[in-house]
Design brief:
It holds the Pfam family Flavin_Reduct. GO terms for molecular function: FMN binding; oxidoreductase activity, acting on the CH-NH group of donors, NAD or NADP as acceptor. InterPro entries: Flavin_Rdtase-like_dom, Split_barrel_FMN-bd. This is Flavin reductase like domain. With 205 residues, the chain is α+β, with helices and mostly antiparallel strands. The protein has a single domain, classed as Electron Transport, Fmn-binding Protein, Chain A (Pnp Oxidase, Chain A, Roll). Helices cover 18% and strands 34% of the residues. The strands form five sheets. Strands 1, 4, 5, 8 and 9 form a five-stranded antiparallel beta sheet that branches. The chain has a two-stranded antiparallel sheet with strand order 2-3. A two-stranded antiparallel sheet has the order 6-7. It is globular. The N and C termini lie far apart (40 Å). The model is unreliable at 29-35, 37-47 and 49-61 (pLDDT under 50).
Protein backbone atom coordinates (compact mmCIF):
# COMPACT_ATOMS: atom_id res chain seq x y z
CA UNK A 1 0.00 0.00 0.00
CA UNK A 2 1.40 3.39 -1.02
CA UNK A 3 0.90 6.00 1.72
CA UNK A 4 1.62 9.70 1.84
CA UNK A 5 0.62 12.78 3.78
CA UNK A 6 -0.47 15.60 1.43
CA UNK A 7 1.24 18.21 3.58
CA UNK A 8 4.56 16.54 2.74
CA UNK A 9 3.90 16.01 -0.99
CA UNK A 10 2.76 12.94 -2.89
CA UNK A 11 6.14 11.92 -4.32
CA UNK A 12 4.60 10.74 -7.61
CA UNK A 13 4.92 12.07 -11.19
CA UNK A 14 1.32 13.33 -11.10
CA UNK A 15 -0.94 14.22 -8.17
CA UNK A 16 -3.29 11.19 -7.77
CA UNK A 17 -5.97 13.03 -5.78
CA UNK A 18 -7.84 14.43 -8.79
CA UNK A 19 -7.76 11.03 -10.51
CA UNK A 20 -9.08 9.20 -7.45
CA UNK A 21 -12.05 11.51 -6.84
CA UNK A 22 -13.56 11.24 -10.26
CA UNK A 23 -14.42 11.45 -12.92
CA UNK A 24 -14.81 15.07 -11.91
CA UNK A 25 -17.75 17.04 -13.26
CA UNK A 26 -16.65 19.55 -15.90
CA UNK A 27 -18.74 22.49 -17.03
CA UNK A 28 -18.36 25.75 -18.91
CA UNK A 29 -19.32 28.70 -16.75
CA UNK A 30 -19.79 32.11 -18.40
CA UNK A 31 -19.99 34.42 -15.34
CA UNK A 32 -20.81 37.69 -17.05
CA UNK A 33 -20.94 39.54 -20.35
CA UNK A 34 -18.16 42.12 -20.22
CA UNK A 35 -17.63 45.16 -22.41
CA UNK A 36 -15.23 43.24 -24.62
CA UNK A 37 -17.56 40.26 -24.95
CA UNK A 38 -18.34 37.03 -23.15
CA UNK A 39 -15.73 35.71 -20.77
CA UNK A 40 -15.86 31.93 -20.49
CA UNK A 41 -14.61 30.04 -17.47
CA UNK A 42 -14.00 26.33 -17.18
CA UNK A 43 -14.89 24.79 -13.84
CA UNK A 44 -13.51 21.64 -12.21
CA UNK A 45 -11.15 20.59 -14.98
CA UNK A 46 -8.17 20.92 -12.66
CA UNK A 47 -9.70 20.97 -9.19
CA UNK A 48 -11.31 18.10 -7.34
CA UNK A 49 -14.72 19.71 -6.97
CA UNK A 50 -16.24 16.54 -5.56
CA UNK A 51 -13.78 16.41 -2.69
CA UNK A 52 -16.06 18.95 -1.02
CA UNK A 53 -18.37 16.73 0.96
CA UNK A 54 -21.95 17.98 0.86
CA UNK A 55 -24.41 16.02 2.99
CA UNK A 56 -28.14 16.24 3.45
CA UNK A 57 -28.71 15.15 7.06
CA UNK A 58 -32.45 14.85 7.58
CA UNK A 59 -33.19 11.31 8.72
CA UNK A 60 -32.50 10.59 12.38
CA UNK A 61 -29.60 8.24 11.68
CA UNK A 62 -27.90 10.67 9.31
CA UNK A 63 -28.28 13.54 11.76
CA UNK A 64 -26.56 11.38 14.36
CA UNK A 65 -23.75 10.71 11.89
CA UNK A 66 -23.34 14.42 11.16
CA UNK A 67 -23.21 15.17 14.89
CA UNK A 68 -20.54 12.50 15.29
CA UNK A 69 -18.41 14.06 12.54
CA UNK A 70 -18.68 17.46 14.20
CA UNK A 71 -17.88 16.01 17.63
CA UNK A 72 -15.02 13.65 16.77
CA UNK A 73 -13.59 15.94 14.05
CA UNK A 74 -12.12 12.96 12.18
CA UNK A 75 -13.38 10.62 9.48
CA UNK A 76 -12.10 8.35 6.71
CA UNK A 77 -13.25 8.41 3.09
CA UNK A 78 -13.08 4.90 1.55
CA UNK A 79 -13.30 4.48 -2.21
CA UNK A 80 -16.27 2.35 -3.28
CA UNK A 81 -15.34 0.07 -6.17
CA UNK A 82 -17.57 -2.18 -8.26
CA UNK A 83 -16.47 -5.13 -6.13
CA UNK A 84 -17.43 -3.32 -2.91
CA UNK A 85 -20.68 -1.76 -4.16
CA UNK A 86 -23.06 -4.26 -2.52
CA UNK A 87 -21.23 -4.13 0.80
CA UNK A 88 -21.21 -0.33 0.83
CA UNK A 89 -24.92 -0.35 0.01
CA UNK A 90 -25.51 -2.42 3.16
CA UNK A 91 -23.92 0.33 5.27
CA UNK A 92 -26.79 2.66 4.29
CA UNK A 93 -29.28 0.61 6.33
CA UNK A 94 -30.95 2.31 9.30
CA UNK A 95 -29.41 0.41 12.21
CA UNK A 96 -30.02 0.68 15.96
CA UNK A 97 -27.56 2.92 17.75
CA UNK A 98 -24.36 1.02 18.48
CA UNK A 99 -24.80 -1.70 15.85
CA UNK A 100 -21.63 -2.18 13.83
CA UNK A 101 -22.02 -1.38 10.12
CA UNK A 102 -18.73 -3.14 9.37
CA UNK A 103 -20.13 -6.43 10.67
CA UNK A 104 -23.42 -6.04 8.80
CA UNK A 105 -21.63 -5.36 5.51
CA UNK A 106 -18.92 -7.99 5.98
CA UNK A 107 -16.18 -5.35 5.87
CA UNK A 108 -12.93 -5.41 7.82
CA UNK A 109 -11.61 -2.57 9.97
CA UNK A 110 -7.98 -1.55 9.61
CA UNK A 111 -6.04 0.93 11.68
CA UNK A 112 -5.45 4.38 10.21
CA UNK A 113 -2.00 5.94 10.41
CA UNK A 114 -2.90 9.55 11.27
CA UNK A 115 -6.48 9.63 12.61
CA UNK A 116 -8.14 7.38 15.18
CA UNK A 117 -11.07 6.35 12.97
CA UNK A 118 -10.64 2.89 11.34
CA UNK A 119 -10.57 2.53 7.58
CA UNK A 120 -12.12 -0.13 5.31
CA UNK A 121 -9.38 -2.69 4.68
CA UNK A 122 -10.95 -3.98 1.45
CA UNK A 123 -11.03 -0.54 -0.17
CA UNK A 124 -8.01 0.14 -2.42
CA UNK A 125 -7.98 3.86 -1.59
CA UNK A 126 -8.59 5.58 1.74
CA UNK A 127 -8.43 9.26 2.68
CA UNK A 128 -7.80 9.98 6.35
CA UNK A 129 -9.45 13.32 7.12
CA UNK A 130 -9.67 15.86 9.90
CA UNK A 131 -12.76 18.04 10.04
CA UNK A 132 -12.18 21.69 9.22
CA UNK A 133 -15.77 22.99 9.13
CA UNK A 134 -19.31 21.69 9.63
CA UNK A 135 -21.67 24.30 8.19
CA UNK A 136 -25.47 24.34 8.06
CA UNK A 137 -26.46 25.85 4.72
CA UNK A 138 -29.16 28.44 4.09
CA UNK A 139 -31.63 29.20 1.34
CA UNK A 140 -31.23 32.38 -0.72
CA UNK A 141 -33.51 34.22 1.74
CA UNK A 142 -31.24 33.32 4.66
CA UNK A 143 -33.44 30.61 6.20
CA UNK A 144 -31.57 27.55 7.50
CA UNK A 145 -32.18 24.32 5.59
CA UNK A 146 -31.66 20.64 6.49
CA UNK A 147 -28.43 20.43 4.54
CA UNK A 148 -24.91 20.54 5.92
CA UNK A 149 -21.58 21.17 4.25
CA UNK A 150 -18.90 18.99 5.84
CA UNK A 151 -15.37 20.10 4.96
CA UNK A 152 -12.36 18.04 5.88
CA UNK A 153 -8.63 18.27 5.29
CA UNK A 154 -7.10 15.12 3.84
CA UNK A 155 -4.15 14.31 6.10
CA UNK A 156 -3.25 10.83 4.88
CA UNK A 157 -3.83 8.90 1.64
CA UNK A 158 -3.53 5.12 1.13
CA UNK A 159 -3.37 3.77 -2.45
CA UNK A 160 -3.12 0.11 -3.45
CA UNK A 161 0.14 0.02 -5.41
CA UNK A 162 -1.45 -2.16 -8.10
CA UNK A 163 -3.36 0.99 -9.15
CA UNK A 164 -0.15 2.94 -9.79
CA UNK A 165 1.42 2.52 -13.23
CA UNK A 166 4.71 4.41 -13.62
CA UNK A 167 3.55 6.50 -10.67
CA UNK A 168 0.25 7.49 -12.35
CA UNK A 169 -3.01 6.48 -10.68
CA UNK A 170 -5.16 4.33 -13.00
CA UNK A 171 -8.75 5.45 -12.44
CA UNK A 172 -10.40 2.83 -14.65
CA UNK A 173 -8.45 -0.04 -13.10
CA UNK A 174 -9.91 0.85 -9.69
CA UNK A 175 -13.47 0.59 -11.13
CA UNK A 176 -14.95 3.36 -8.96
CA UNK A 177 -18.73 3.42 -8.61
CA UNK A 178 -20.71 6.55 -9.45
CA UNK A 179 -24.23 7.45 -8.37
CA UNK A 180 -26.63 7.97 -11.28
CA UNK A 181 -30.19 9.30 -11.51
CA UNK A 182 -33.01 7.46 -9.79
CA UNK A 183 -33.05 5.53 -6.52
CA UNK A 184 -31.13 2.42 -7.66
CA UNK A 185 -28.97 3.41 -10.64
CA UNK A 186 -25.17 3.41 -10.51
CA UNK A 187 -22.33 3.35 -13.03
CA UNK A 188 -18.86 1.82 -13.01
CA UNK A 189 -15.97 3.17 -15.07
CA UNK A 190 -14.09 1.07 -17.62
CA UNK A 191 -10.98 1.66 -19.71
CA UNK A 192 -13.08 1.51 -22.90
CA UNK A 193 -14.76 4.81 -21.93
CA UNK A 194 -11.47 6.70 -21.66
CA UNK A 195 -10.33 9.30 -24.19
CA UNK A 196 -7.53 11.87 -24.02
CA UNK A 197 -7.51 15.60 -24.73
CA UNK A 198 -4.41 17.76 -24.93
CA UNK A 199 -5.04 21.29 -23.66
CA UNK A 200 -4.42 24.13 -26.14
CA UNK A 201 -1.53 25.63 -24.17
CA UNK A 202 0.23 22.26 -24.16
CA UNK A 203 -0.02 22.09 -27.98
CA UNK A 204 1.82 25.38 -28.52
CA UNK A 205 5.19 25.08 -30.18
Amino acid sequence: MYFYQPSQGHGLPHDPLNAIVGPRPIAGLPPAILKDGLTWRRIASSTALTTIRHYRFRQHGLERQRAQYCRDREFVWNLTTRELASAMNETSASLPHGEDEFLRAGLTKAESRVVKVPLVAQSPVNFECRLSQCIQLTAANGDSIDTWLVLGEVVGIHIDESLLQDGIYQTAKAQPVLRAGGPTAYFAIGEDQRFDLVRPDARKG
